[in-house]
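Hi R.,

Here are the chain sequences for the assembly we discussed:
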Amino acid sequence: MAFLVCVAIAIVRLKDLFAVAMLAGIYGLLSASLFVSMDAVDVAFTEASVGAGISTLLMLTTIAMTGRSEKTSGHKPLLALTVVCVTGALLIYATLDMPSYGDVNSAANLHVVQRYLNDSFMEIGVENIVTSVLASYRGFDTFGEVVVIFTAGIGVLALLSFSRREKDDSEIDSINESMHEEHLVVRIVSKILIPFILLFALYVQFHGDFGPGGGFQAGVIFAAAIILYAMLFGMSVARRVINQSFVQLFAAVGVLLYGGVGVVSMLSGGNFLDYNVLAADPVAGQHLGILLIELGVGIAVAMVVIIIFFNFASRIGFSSEGDKL
Amino acid sequence: MLTHLPALQVLIPLMAAPLCLFLRRPHLVWMFTLIVSGLAFLISVALLQQVMVSGPIIYEMGGWSGPWGIEYRIDRLSAFLSLIITAMSTVVLIAAQTSIDKEIPKNRQIYFYILFLFALTGLLGIVSTGDVFNVFVFLEISSLSTYALIALGKDRRALWAAYQYLIMGTIGATFILISIGLMYQMTGTLNMADLAVLLPEVAQTRTIFAAFAFFVVGVCLKLALFPLHLWLPNAYAYAPSIVTAFLAATATKVAVYLLIRFTYSIFGISFSFTTLPLQTLFVVLGLVGVFVASTAAVYQKNVKHVFAYSSVAQVGYMIVGFSIGTTAGLMATLLHLFNHALMKGALFLALGAVMYRIGSVQLSSFNGLGRQMPFTMAAIVAGGLSLIGVPLTVGFVSKWYLVMASIENGWWPVAVLILLGSLFAIVYVWRIIEAAYFKDPVAGKEPAKEAPLAFLIPIWLLVGANIYFGIDTRLSIQVAQAAAHSLLGISP
Amino acid sequence: MTTVLGLYNYWIVVVLMMIGLYIVIANGNLVKKIIGLNIFQTSVFIFYISLGKVDGGTAPILVEGVELYSNPLTHVLILTAIVVSLATTALGLAIVVRIKEAYGSIEEEEIQIKDNKEC
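And here is the predicted structure of the full complex:
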């Protein structure tokens, strides 16, 4: 934990944005390992792929466009310090009446959770309780989560997609070529690796019932494989392989698949997202429902992350041209 | 199907949004969005009727009963709010296509409609849900889409405004998340009804006190209550006109809803108003907000800024009504929610029409508009009168109830100050009228034409509603009163 | 002494939150603000996970013979919250990229100055 504080302080002090972004990635990894130590394996998995992976990648891409040094002047530390201290003091004050860390008998660990712990296997038939809560008991939250990420994808599209005038592909190609020469080994190694990463993504996707994993993590890993491909073989090649409007439609399909499961359960006489009615046997219905919605999550997340990355990356050439002008 | 209405209301716009991607043609997408929003409106009417007659409806998502699953809980207040939201979104959407054509490039229009639907979904989700964490999720859906919508504005300042809003909004949402975490820690539940039962046991702990404080600060950021309003004027001023009209009519209302819901239904009124000096604090902040924002409104050169500051001031009125803490005060706030949505919807749409014809909403470009765009300007005058609170408009109704509520409570100075605040409204509305009717158009500029029907119809629908509900107040008052009663636990 | 040990975890979280929030408010660089926001949110996640930790418990995956599990509910909530924070980060950075293109800068002050000139 002390590490986290050190890294955070370093982030405050450093001016070099590149270093800051890397440190933020380290921060993500550290908190992920902290989550493991607190038994939250699913969360750790996600935090590692998001905090240390995608977020850092996006930040680096942004920094590539915006410049890496930060100007010093014009801070208003006084105001900030006051706000922060008041907030912190309030929080410390709040902790005084909290049950202590790790308390088995704290309210949080007694009330609602007990049913999940005791009955979820009977009701849903999935070993990983996190999965059953995520996908079934609080399935609607997860639907909301998919919608949030989809919204972000659409927002990024709305902001960063190009209006009609496509840029000159030939020039970008030449940049890519020169990059390829240098990384021949890396290219070959990753060419072998990428199928395995994709396979791993599929494994994570369908293994969520028993171990940590599930649609979201799988989606991120899948997208990571595609992004790796794009980085090594050049954006334009990747763009040719993966059609953009196809990706968008697939992201929508992911969301609709999730919602569709809900609608089907409505039509078969249950409430929205009530998987019990999907099959004759409630537990089998739960299984089917969870499988399908996790698939929806996976597809939507993978596609959205690809959308976000491609749109960011396609701006790199554009803004540097702007700088020259 | 009737039992599914509470879920369908949120789900229809939600599911429609990704479907838009398949339609591809902006025109089709617009029609589709309009139909979807209209459907949601019809559902909210049906829900409101049902709730008024037979009390709260509970819908269990996934078939899991609360507190284990997530439940939707539609009571009078939420049905009332969703009626406002869907009505405004439908009316505003009528003008959307015409307005958007000029303000957003063609290839981004589809994304605009998708984001709009998500914003609608998010707001409806917030008012319908009975689970505090679900509130956070839908809050983020609506916020994220709103940030993107604002950033779509033509002016580059829209980007800056969206960024600032994003930072403030996310801090607000994270504060609310902290508050939810603290509540969960002390009670072990996330369900609102369950929380209301369990909280009193631990109400005296410092943790719950902090939870409440974090919630209030977080929601006030969203609410743009003075002095946390700094993000709002620019966000409203530079967003696309349609977005401004929609947001001004709905987004802050939902934040007020959250404040009411948490203080009255979850923490309970005795906790909220006795443990903290909240009442005094809110009255003071509300009134200061009214005056500061109204003064700022008087000095703005951009008319969108004028009305944006006026929105901050109106939030002040709502907060004053809310903090009176009596049925009458609460009712005044609810009425003002509804009425203010009507006024600001009409005003910002009319500004959208001006934007459409002239390409600017600077005060100076209003010179002589009274003759060039008579119907649009007449609408602005009507909306302005309503804002001031002239009799026969909705503005009068809500101010009247607000003043009565404060007098009833013995708060004479507050009542006087509320009336004084209206004087400011006269000043800033007058400046616009003066420019439009008493100044000559700038020489050499081509006279503007009247706005197209796509604008005039929704504008005058809203103006008509402004006057109708200003004269025939039975409907709005009945609903607001019933909602206030059920919040305070008084059977009607 | 026991209270100090019992609450130590939370206090660290509070410190992290404060650092994150400080970066958001005090820093003028738009990218760094978003990084600060990330730290702020991550520390809230740590808070949630800490409150669900049970001494002697294991990860909430049912295994024969294990009786004590950590709280799965907070894990679920945080999974959702992480995704939300990713979404916010992505959108925020997209806006930053556009700001850079429109203003040629990502420093708060410089943007303010340019805006004031226009008004």
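The first strand of chain B starts at residue 57 and ends at 60. Residues 20 and 29 of chain B are 6 Å apart (CA to CA).

Let me know if anything looks off.

Best,
T.
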